[in-house]
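U., I forgot to send this yesterday:
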Amino acid sequence: MKLHAVTLLILFAALACYGAGYGGGGLAFVFLAAVLEAWCWIRVVQRPRTHRAAHAIGLRGSPTQRR
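Result:
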């Protein structure tokens, strides 16, 4: 759930930068917003790495693994 919170924070930061950039703040804010938005979409589309790594070494489904 923490990963979703971080992704939402990145998205809100991007929206704030878009607002500041288009509201007369300059091109730097628009560029920063585009970078933050791209980072947000990468986080949304990309699979979590921990599950792939755990599955690859056989830890997934182990009775000793805690959630």
